[in-house]
Amino acid sequence: MPLSLSIILLVLLLPEQFAAQGLPDEPGNGRGPNVIYFNTANTTEGSPFQKNVETVLNFFYEHNPPNGFATCLGYGDFPNTVYGHTGCYNMSDQPSCSECIKKAYQGIQQNAPYTLGGTYWINETEIRCRLRYENYNLTGLTLFGIVGPNNSAPAPAPIPSNPPPSQARPPSQARPSILQNSSRNRALVWGLVGGAVGACVLLAGAAFLLWRWRRKYTKLNGRRRYHGNTELEGSIEGPVVFKYQDLSLATCNFSETNKLGQGGFGTVYKACLKDGTQVAVKKLSLQSSQGRQEFVNEISIITSIQHRNLARLKGYCVERDQRLLVYEFLNNGSLDRALFSPKTSTLNWTSRFHIVTGVARGLAYLHEESHIQIIHRDIKASNILLDDKMQPKISDFGISKLFDMDKGFTSTKVAGTVGYMAPEYATRGRLSSKADVFSFGILALEIVSGRRCMDPTLSASQELLVQMAWNMWNAGKMVEFVDKRLDGNYVEEEVFRVMDVAILCTQEGEEYRPTMSDVVAMLMGYLEIRQPPSQNPLYFGGGGTSSTSTTTADDTNITELEGR
Fold first, then answer.
1. Fewer CB near the terminus (10 Å): N or C of the chain?
2. pTM of the model
3. What is the 3-state secondary structure (H, E, C) of 252-310?
4. How many structural domains comprise the chain?
5. Residue where a domain stops, chosen among 142, 157, 172
6. Is residue 404 flagged as an active site residue?
7. Residue range 272-304, pLDDT digits in tens
8. Which of 378, 396, 483, 518 is an active site residue?
């Protein structure tokens, strides 16, 4: 399939459950010039779904205003319903916006004819717009601008345009003066006043009913004033989904037999709800001073983003002094256990490669595709969960940071895991998306080698996995770095590609590390991998500033430093 040099093509296998990001972000200078994502499943010409797509696209052509957005909440009957949204960014008139959207749709059709869903950013000198349409509900969408066409709401009237001079009203058809229509004007005024009064009465009644409902709902869910919990609840949007009593029953009173693991801020239990659904319940530690903010962060962040490579939050519970998070249950547990535990079978190379690319896609979404940029700050094997198909899902967003895309970095208090933290972040508190890129590089090296990032039982030259990897990479001995348990059953070209990318990601200078979207493209073979400097980074064996740390159950250190 021919591709122009101005297009970075990233193929994502999008499941039906994947929910899109919110309102289309303006494609900045670093996102371009043009980027395409599309669903690999296709329909056919003239199919009901394709006809619905064309109806929605025609609406976007006609109604998307310049420097604005248009949204389709669902057009057509299931299973051929089409959802979509689009936005124009530097258009001075509607025809220019329409041409940009048409060009975006043509770009999708050229690369993936009759796909069941696609996204195209156009980020060029003269035109900048974004188009997205899917066959599933965009549940994360924030609504702005023109809405339609939808099954539940008709499309708005077309955008009015100034009539040409030839269609101007002739003098004989001039409108009557105000004096000639005084009676009609008085009736209109009284009608407007009456309507306004009636609307105020209806709004007051609706507000009263809403207040009564919320008061009753709060009582039913046990949200009472205990230990200042009202302040905590006020910082969380959404209803309390689960009761503590139900979660206690589902976990057999949080018994040790149902314990799945333990982290720095709480313990995770397997639970079976009354309807038979299996979930994972994270019970935050009551003694942790960070547990309170950790809880708010995790809910605020996860409820606003959805991606197939991010763990899905099903709900939470706030009762008295208890704070619990309820996640989807993933049978294969964490990557840490699958990769390092002697009790589990060795992951084959196919699974490892899919895990590397899946984690990269999840991080690319957090950094560049979500309507809010998120820096995870704690990417490591124990925070990667695996589903039945060994699909990786990034979890534990408790110390994540919402980030201003207009800023290159920020100075912040350091929190993360020793061995995975980027040098500029660990020593100076300098945080940017490149800190996650560094952590991803360490994780990729662990997946290739089958050993942890730090092993104090080994010699000084082999204690740090990243130092050992750089030494072997410079010496051209990458084959010796591969996990011996694979017994040679791997695709050598893929192994070298992962190692080359990991070396790029773990460079000392953050400005030399690639973005996660480039990482995905390089792993998939769509982008040439540039060569990093051959000199090993200076941070090997280097000391940091003084720190305080607490040891977690999986023998990793959660370190906190005050950024200078």
1. N
2. 0.54
3. CCCCHHHEEEECCCEEEEEEECCCCCEEEEEEECCCCCCHHHHHHHHHHHHCCCCCCCE
4. 3
5. 157
6. no
7. 988 888 888 888 766 554 456 666 666 766 666
8. 378
